[in-house]
């Protein structure tokens, strides 16, 4: 029973990754083409049926997995690359200089990914890039916060003071003590943020603010499915399920990692 | 028959029945004060919690605990909760965190009375002030209107003692009630407890023989879930039988160590006790 | 003292409001893209475009235009829509109520579900039913709100035909119809929120169960439930307030999407229409309003927290 969330999360992510890998090299039909009559029920030719325009749902589903992972993981890794150093800096430098990045990231926290994406889409037109940028920007504050809090905690430990007194420069202190100590917290946040990013991306595609019609993202499939909600509600089933599985996977992985890395919190979460 | 009669009590925890108390028997008379002494993990606090019926849900209890003739082991929770705070109450170690930080102290004391005896005749307010005065709080009204964080550790422990005594329980369990306090306050609280517990049954759990000596006439020494020695406290101190008890007493008598000699530790007498 | 801290927070709030507005204005103005070109279409001559830009004040320096915009915004005057030519402020005012009701009801329903569910999951965390509640909240967290909305429509509007699939009726027209049109959107919004909040409640209640004052309450004769209601909820409630404030941003975003699912004429649908038409004035105005609302409410929650928690009320600098 131990680490059950971790394994479950990893398993669900494994399913999505497998879909993405398979979808990259092989789909039964081209995912972005009309391959038959619309709204076909599942059959031997079309395992999950066809959508309103006659696209093969299974092919589109497979191909959506790659985009989902690319945007979700890509944007969050970018956010961590920016947010973690800023957070460490903010935690190590005392006084208002250290305070400023933390406060700025608090403001950014008031801008959810969707609002940023709307701003970008209004100025530039919506695309995969604006969606990814918006999600990345919106994911930064969480990393700043977590890196700052962890750094502050590490910096208050006696051995840091000892290292500073013995003349070790600041950057060396950060590299030697802070980074390894905040790594677990950042790892957990990475997983949690990817879950949120996948949800955000789905929402953006659903609203038509993300990738264009040529890219079969799961959110866009749901957008198209809604047109047929009275005649063919089954179209909304698979893409939504896929989003939920991917998000659940990363959320569980995050929880499992937290349990694994911080036994003190095991009871609480 | 004594007021509290514990017979062959076994307590273990979890799926693997990790034992904490291995078949102890104790009795406390109606105005008797028994000290239980032992190091952490010896099962002394677990025994006290068992009497309160407050062991965690994964605890397994076997044997018998009788309070005024009534069997407490296996007593349904709805009956047990009527006894708690009324017939039997407990004073804990951490006065700093044992009060609800969001509620004024007077209300928390009054709640104990109201809980068991209803909102009787609107006199609870006076009763609260009366009790706060009796536990040695000099400005009862001001303290009653304060939040816990505004009080000192000693004042908080006094308030908690007032809560434990408010319904005149027959038995009071004290679990290291002075350990978290500084020496001066410790002495005051011990004097207060000795005075307040004089006319009721009490069990006083501590790791400190000197503390127990100030409040109790009898003492039981617990080690690894068993009682290894029991008797009149002065007799035990004068002629300890078990090597563990000998070590406890020797390590408490630092004044008898010649300069330059190593300090005695319990482990010198009872190697199994090394912590 | 606490008052000084509130003053500091207020000053910081003003600074954040200003910075946020600057960010919004910069994002929509400094980025490439020419409003005049959009308005006139691709076959306009450069001369026509230049004239229109001058007319709209777009040839002014960035800071001048920003000052004009923010000065107008403070008086609730956002100018006119580039597309319809109508003033923006009245449009926002007429749309605000729909979104506000959706968010308000969504949060209330979410808290009403999350409190008992989270507390139950905490108390029964070692039993199958408590674990099941936790698992359910974990699933609710992963399900996109708009997907839940689509299925609610399929079940309750299309198949059972109990409730309307979308649209809006004002409470002035018919209170019953108004509520009927809000049930499904509010439910889809609340499912996700309740899942998030119930997890906080669960964690917070488990902490309370380990607190010494909880043990004290049990020792004076409270049952587990009694002690939890009397002493647990007071302490959980304080931290819950912060969570609700932080969740507001999520809720606003959720509302924008949900308005789209149920064709509710709220701020979100205006915003999305404006984006598709590249109507920058409307986009700026609504985004500014939403972001300011998030920042202001977080400020209020922070102040309320100072006032409610007795530990902070008198010795503000203690922690």
Describe this structure in words.
The complex is a heterotrimer of chains A (269), B (275) and C (319). By secondary structure, chain A is mostly helical. Chain A has nine helices and no strands. Chain A has one domain: MetI-like (MetI-like fold), CATH 1.10.3720.10. In chain A, helix 4 packs antiparallel against helix 5. Chain A is elongated, with a radius of gyration of 22 Å. The C terminus of chain A is likely disordered. In chain B, the strands form two sheets. A six-stranded mixed β-sheet of chain B has the order 6-7-8-3-9-10, sandwiched between helices. In chain B, strands 2-1-4-5 form a four-stranded antiparallel β-sheet, covered by helices on one side. Helix content of chain B is 36%, strand content 24%. Chain B is built from eleven helices and ten strands. The model of chain B has no long low-confidence stretch (mean pLDDT 88). The longest helix of chain B has 14 residues. The radius of gyration of chain B is 19 Å and the shape is globular. With 275 residues, chain B is α/β, with parallel strands linked by helices. Chain B has one domain: Rossmann fold (3-Layer(aba) Sandwich), CATH 3.40.50.300. By secondary structure, chain C is mainly alpha-helical. Chain C has a domain of 190 residues: MetI-like (MetI-like fold, Orthogonal Bundle), CATH 1.10.3720. Chain C is built from 13 helices and no strands. In chain C, helix 10 runs parallel beside helix 11 and helix 10 packs antiparallel against helix 12. Chain C is globular. The C terminus of chain C is likely disordered. Chains in contact: A-C, B-C.
Oligomer: heterotrimer
Count of β-strands of chain A: 0
Mean of residue pLDDT values of chain B = 88
Evaluate the radius of gyration of chain B.
19 Å
**E-strand count of chain B:** 10
| CATH class membership of chain B | Alpha Beta
What is the succession of H and E elements of chain B? EEEHEEHEHHHHEHEHEEHHH
Q: Give the strand line-up of the largest sheet of chain B.
A: 6-7-8-3-9-10
Please state roughly what percent of the residues of chain B sit in beta strands, choosing from under 5%, 5-15%, 15-25%, 25-35%, 35-45% or over 45%. Answer: 15-25%
Into which percent range does the helicity of residues of chain B fall? 25-40%
Which class best fits the helix and strand makeup of chain A?
mainly alpha
Mean pLDDT of chain A: 85
Helix percentage of chain A? over 70%
Give the biggest beta sheet of chain B: 6 strands, mixed
Total helical segments of chain A: 9
Write down the overall geometry of chain A. Answer: elongated
Determine the most extensive contact between two protein chains: A-C, 49 and 53 residues
Number of helical elements of chain B: 11
Instruction: Please state the second-level CATH architecture of chain B.
Output: 3-Layer(aba) Sandwich
CATH superfamily annotation of chain B: P-loop containing nucleotide triphosphate hydrolases
